Every structure is written in C-alpha cells, then in structure tokens.
Amino acid sequence: AAVARRDSIFWGPPVQLEDHEANPDIHHDEIASEGIEACIGNTPLLKIKSLSEATGRTILAKAEFLNGAGNSPKDRVALNIIREAEAQRLLTPHRGDTIYEGTVGSTGISLATLARAKGYRAHICMPDDQSFEKSDLLHHLGATVERVPVAPITSPDHFVNLAKRRAIEHERRHNDGSKGFFANQFESKANWQAHFRSTGPEICHQTDGEVDAFVAGAGTGGTIAGVARYLKEEANLQNVKIVLADPQGSGLFNKIKYGVMYSATEREGTRRRQQVDSIVEGIGINRVTDNFEAGRDLVDDAVKVTDEQACRMARWLVEKDGIFVGSSSSVNCVAAVVAAMKLPAGSQVVTILCDSGTRHLSKFWKQIKELGLEEEEATDVFEALGISK
Ligand code: PMP
Questions:
Q1: Per-residue pLDDT reduced to its tens digit, 13-34
Q2: Which of 66, 68, 73, 279 has its CA 20 to 30 A from that of 44?
Q3: How many angstroms is it from 112 CA to the middle of ligand 1?
Q4: Which of 199, 189, 181, 156 is nearest to 62 (CA)?
Q5: What pLDDT score does 311 carry?
Q6: pLDDT at position 3, please?
Q7: Which residues form the Tryptophan synthase beta chain-like PALP domain (predicted)?
Q8: Is 74 marked active-site?
Q9: In angstroms, what is the span from residue 199 Cα to ligand 1's centroid?
Q10: How confident is the model at residue 387 (pLDDT cuts 50, 70, 90)?
Q11: Where does the pLDDT of residue 266 fall: very low under 50, low under 70, confident under 90, or very high at 90 and above?
Q12: pLDDT for 231-250, tens place per residue?
C-alpha cells in the first residue's frame, strides 16, 4: 500500500483535507536525497491507550520527539527559519555565517543540527537553570554555548537579548565577510507558520478532521498558534476547542482566563522572580510573545498544571504505555485529560509529545525519583493527578 513519505506533506502548500488522498504515489522506500531534513515532520499520531481508556475519550498525541534532526517540534521551526533566511539572503552556506539564538534548549539543538547540515555555525545563549543534557548536546553538535544567569526580559543580559546582541556584534568580531543572523524564534512569523504549514495539516490528515480539542503548552506560542490557525481558519474546523496547557508559575493561564497576566498580588512576586517558577522546561512564559499573540484569540480555555501533576503523569505514561517523555509533554497530557473530561464521551483530543525523557534525566526525572513515584504503582489516573472525573 502506498504511504506518504515523511516529507511529502511538510513544506508543500497548506494541505486541504480533501487533498490528502491525492498523494498516494509517494513511498517510504525512496532515497531521501535531502539528507537529515527528510526526517523532519510527518510524525506519528499515537493513541495513548491508558488515558483513552480512563477518560472514555480518545487521547491522541503527536510524537514530535521523533522529528529526527533535533528530536523535538523545533526541527520544523528551525528548518523554516533557516529556509526563509536563505531566501532573503540573510544566510549563505559555507561562508562562516553564524545563526544566533536565545533558547531554553530545544530550538538551539534543532538550529545547531541543521546549521551543521547546511554549512553554518550556531551560537546559542540559554539560561543556566536548564538541564545539562541540552547544553552538553549543543557542545557535541559543535555550537558555541553561553549559559547565562536567569535575568528578566527587560535586562540586556536576558538570554534572548544577549543572542540578539551577539548577532549584531558578529561582523565587528569576525570581520571576514561572514554574517550573523538572529533566528528570533519568539517573535518570528516563521515559527508559527512552520506549524501552520506542517503540524496542523498533519493532524487534520491523521484524524480525517475529527478533532474536538487541541491541547498544547506555549514556550514561544508557535505550536499552539500555528496549529490553532490551521485547524480553525484553514481547515474550517470551527468547533475544535483550543486549550492552553500551562505549568505552575506561568502567566499565560490568567491571560487566557481573565485577560490579564497576573492578579495584583501575584504581580509583585513575579516581578521579583522574573521567571516561571516550575521544574517544567520549555513551556510557560510571563509575557505575550508575537507568536502567542498570533493565535491568542483562538484559544478557548486554559488548564493550569502543577509540577507534581506533571511528575505523576510522566511516571504514569511510562508505567502504563511505555511512553518516556519530558516535562512539557507531561503537562500537555495532564491538560489533555482535564480538557477531555469537559467534552462528551467519545470525543477526540489531540496533544503534543514534545521531547524524550532522556533530555530530562538530571532534573525532571530526578525529581520523579525523589518524590518516590518510581516505587508507587498508580491505578487511577484521576486519583494520581488529584482531579475529579
Ligand atoms: N516543549 C519543549 C521541550 C520546548 O522546548 C518548547 C519550546 N521552547 C515547547 C514545548 C513549546 O513550544 P512552542 O515554543 O511552540 O510554544
């Protein structure tokens, strides 16, 4: 039987539901001459059996950790950002051009991998509270890595502002005709558009458009905005509920629920913290980025998830389904269960498994061990999460 090659949908024009059947002549067994890029996109949509059984709804998850360059949905974004920069002649291969980015890790890993594949250098600025697995990997990929103390976004030393400054400084520092390019994932349209052009169409294709809710956290907001816009505006699935999964300490939950980032009392505490106070990496922010704004009007609901719930869900997924994921994926799955229970029995909910647990051994999975969850066997997911049916 004909199967769509992994890159057949990705990067084509936005795929209409009825067009999917028009592609049956593309096979997996062709040689992917584009190299590692062929491993990006067209990820499987898994049924999470244990959660589907427990909720009486179908819980589906896009296995984004199977994107085969940097092993997260950021492969899609990094590829789109680089392609657009090349089209605008902001990047030219094999000239010493350097891609600069501020990232908590995943985008840096995807950019560093694709930079290698395409003849660029990568210079990544990241906060120093993120797991070492990610910065070690960046080193092995040959990127220059600056781990910097956590600072408010208003500070010139915030990791994003630093990356931007480094890009500006590039020509003066190198003076060899090479250029610096700031990837700018938080504000660049190429981010949400990557999901609009690939993740969204893939979800439609894989479900035949039967999606009652899409649940995702926001780091830059690119995933939720791009998928929401595709589902609601392009595929015209007006009734699909878009649900934000938000970790504790993030300001977005209140923004969606009440239109303001924080209550007055919380605001003062947050100003002091200046960061999302959670063990969860990759999602949860205290500002509205351009990428989140691109889909904000389409978000119908938000679910706040505690660190403990995220830890318990991660453990549950390993124990019941053999699915070993990181913290943002766990938050998404907790929120997917909560969102599913607000829908009629039999509904279909789609969420995202962002990255593998192997990237989170030293922090998130250590915490799971310290909480003693590896010793416990949970029998009821609602009880484990402390939520009512
Ligand atoms: N999960 C992980 C592990 C991430 O690194 C990110 C991005 N920072 C996300 C989820 C969120 O994706 P987005 O930036 O599209 O909101």
A1: 444 444 433 333 434 456 777 7
A2: 279
A3: 16
A4: 199
A5: 98
A6: 36
A7: 38-355
A8: yes
A9: 14
A10: very high
A11: low
A12: 999 999 999 999 999 999 99
Pairing of strands 98-102, 58-63: unpaired
Judge whether residue 82 has pLDDT over 60.
yes
3-state SS, the chain, equals CCCCCCCCCCCCCCCCHHHHHHCCCCCCCCCCCCHHHHHCCCCCEEECHHHHHHHCCEEEEEEHHHCCCCCCCHHHHHHHHHHHHHHCCCCCCCCCCEEEEECCCHHHHHHHHHHHHHCCEEEEEEECCCCHHHHHHHHHCCCEEEEECCCCCCCCCCHHHHHHHHHHHHHHHHCCCCCEEECCCCCCHHHHHHHHHHHHHHHHHHHCCCCCEEEECCCCCHHHHHHHHHHHHHCCCCCCEEEEEEECCCCHHHHHHHCCCCCHHHHHHHHHHCCCCCCCCCCCCCCCCHHHHCCHHHCCEEEEECHHHHHHHHHHHHHHHCCCECHHHHHHHHHHHHHHHCCCCCCEEEEEECCEHHHHCCCHHHHHHHCCCCCCCCCCHHHHHCCCC
Handedness of CA 134, 70, 125, 328 (dihedral sign): negative
Mean per-residue pLDDT, 115-134: 94
The number of residues making up the chain comes to 389
Pocket of ligand 1 (CB under 6 A): 72, 104, 106, 217-223, 281-283, 326, 328, 354-355
Rounded distance from Cα 281 to ligand 1 centre (Å): 8
Burial class (CB in 10 A: 0-12, 13-18, 19+), 112: buried
Q: What percent of the chain has pLDDT over 90?
A: 79
Please tell me the residue having the least CA distance from ligand 1 atom 8.
282
Percent of the chain with pLDDT over 70: 88
**Span from the CA of 65 to the centroid of ligand 1 (angstroms):** 11
What ipTM score was computed for the predicted complex, to two decimals? 0.98
- Tell me which of 189, 192, 220, 283 to substitute to probe ligand 1's pocket, judged by most ligand atoms within 8 Å of the beta carbon: 283
Averaged over 115-137, what is the pLDDT? Answer: 94
- Residue whose C-alpha is closest to residue 42's, from 19, 18, 11: 11
